[in-house]
Each structure stands twice: as structure tokens, then as C-alpha cells.
Amino acid sequence: MNYGVFQEYYSDNWTLQGSQELTGIIGTTSNGVMYLSMPFLFALFTKRWAHKRQTAALCGAALASISFLLSSFSTHVWHLVATQGVMAALGCALIYSPITLSLGEWFTTSNRAVAYGVVLSCKNIVGSACPFLLRILLDRYGFRTTLRIWTAIAAGTSIPAIFLIPTHPSSISLNTHQTPKIPWHFLKHRTFYIYSVAIILQSSGYGIPQTYLNTYAHEVTLLSQTSATLLLTLFNIPGIIASAFFGYLSDNKHFPLSATTVTSISAVSSALSAFLLWGLASQGSMTLLVLFSITFGFFAGGYSATWGGVINELELEAAQRNEAIDTGMLYGLLNGARGIGYVSGGLAGVPLLKAGSMSSFGGFGYGTTYGPLIIFTGISSVFGGWGLLWKWKQVLHLI
Fold first, then answer.
1. How many Cβ atoms are within 10 Å of 164's Cβ, its own excluded?
2. Which residues pair with 76 in a beta bridge?
3. Cβ contacts of residue 281 below 8 Å, gap of 6+?
4. What is the pLDDT of residues 14-65, one digit of tens each?
5. Phi first, then psi: what are they for 253, rounded to 5°?
6. Is residue 378 a contact partner of residue 271, using CB atoms and an 8 Å limit?
């Protein structure tokens, strides 16, 4: 979430061998690898290896810490891609997957979305606090020492936290009998694919501002490094509230909203902020960029918290069809869809930036090198809510 700070530092202090442009894919590659590996990890730790969840999470913490340490010795850009983009991501996925499975088992369908939302809010707390810390460390010590300090922070916080969420007794008891098979009935039904495609599209644009907003603010709007770092902090702070808020919207019983409605609120609102705020930002327009960071960070940052409602809807459909469903495995597959989106967005970002450099004509954000990235972010975000169109089509068909 804080890779944008490193991206800006690498841009201004390039000392490595290889193409500097490749640093633009590290952040999205990291997110992509982490989320793409989750379906496989969720499948492993849902039933068969449930009793090894904490051990796996501890191995993940060790892998992530070692990866950050190795990254500090990088001499070529591909070293950064391999350590920060791939190895550290796998380590984080090994922490997140088994622990999230255990978390989901401790909560019922009535409050599961809120529980996921609170956990995702903690992610945003880190994303809000760390940009300035990393900026100070990078300016004072350089990226090598900063990564070594980050290694100690990652190990010192993740390892104790793993023990806070033990494996649910029901999962441990399964290992004394024959391990049940994971039910895959939901793969036969359209609803799962509607939401998966929406997640892929939304995620492909979500990682773009995280990677490029810092450099955009510094290069195009000519803001100071401190102001550019502030934007990344403002991008993450709203997610603290948004994740819990959208989790509550998905679970609330007073004004029940469908999963498609909640995802559409997040998707359409974040798309509008990209088109109307980032796209219209011009040189020196700090106000618009601050508003964009806050609004996009809130609505797009809360999108993944809507998945609790998606899972509840799929669980209800399975019950109506008298089919079994494994919500942990389902959550892993939704994360996998997000990984596809992250990787797609990262791969698209580099050629879009090149296209902008060949056709930039000044003016607002649309007329700069980053214009194609802004348009891509807005379009992909709005399609994150396309499930609502599918619902309307079903209703009109019935009429």
C-alpha cells in the first residue's frame, strides 16, 4: 500500500542497473502475486491443513522479512521485482490466507462482513501511518537501510499478531476424521462469475493511483515531496472508516441493501472521483488532488469490504438450492480475482504511461502524460459495479 513512496524515491534517486520503468510494475505485481496465490492457499488451509494455519503464517512472516532484507542488497531492478514484488508478496499471502480463514470461522453470517471490514480497516491504518515514516527514513538513510529497518518492523509486528487469532476448534477437529471435500457447486452458477469479473475490473484500476499518484503530484502539479507523500496518507486514511462502513452496509438489518447495490455505490463513486477530481487537476491544484485522495480512498478502498455481503448472497443462493458451500474457499477465489485485476492493471500501466508521453498536450490531468492512466482508472472503477446492471436486467426480464 505504501509502494508509491518507494516508487517516487527510485524515480528521483536511481542508482540500480536496468530499466527504471520496471519499478512501475513492482507495486501492482506484489498485489497481484499476493492475491493470485490466495485461492491455492485457501484451498490448502480450508480443510486438509487447517491445523497447520499458524505454522504457515509464521513461515510467511519469516519469508516476507527475509525478502525485505534481501531487497536491501539489490543492485539490479529485477532484484527489486523478485524480492519486493514476488517473494515478499508470497510471504504476506501466507500470513493473510490462513489467518483470514480462522477469522471467518469465528464469526457468523450476521457479522462476518463487519469482521472482515474491521480487519481491512487495520490495513488502512498501516497505509496511513507509514508513508511519512518511510519518507523520513528514505531521505535520511536511503532505501537500503530503510528496507532493513522495515524488515525489523515487519517481523516484530506480524509474528506476535499471528497468535491473536487461533484456529477455530471446529477446523482442528476435522483432522481426526476423514477430511471432507470442498464443495464446488457455486462454480455452476452465474452469480459467482458476475462478481468475479466486477472485482477483476475494479482492481485493475485501484492499484494505479497507489503507484503513480505520488509521482504525478511531484512531476505534474509540482508539489513538494512532503505534499506528495501527504496525498498517499490521505488516500489510505479514509479506508479505515470505509472498510467498516461498507462491511456494515453489507450486514445491516435496518436498511438491507443487496450486495450489488453496495458494490455499485463503491464503484460508481470512486469512478466519479477519478474523472472529476484527478482528471481535472492542473498544475498547483493541491485541493483537487486532496479531494481525489480522500474520496477515491474512501469509496475504492472500501470495495473489498463488500465481499462479505457477496459471500452472504452466494451462501443464501446455495441454501435455496440445497447445496453445500465453503465460504472460506469462496473468499479465497474472490481474492484471486482481485489478483488478476492487480496484475492486469500493472501490466497496462506502463504502456498507458508511454502512450500519454507521446500524446500529452498540457492542461488538466487528462492532457498530461498520466491522462490515459486517469481514464483507465475511472473506466475500470465504474465497471466494478456492473453487477447492478445484471440485476436490473433480471428484474426487467421478469416484468
1. 7
2. 17
3. 220, 221, 288, 289, 292, 364, 365
4. 888 888 777 777 877 887 788 888 888 888 887 778 788 889 999 999 999 9
5. -105, -10
6. yes
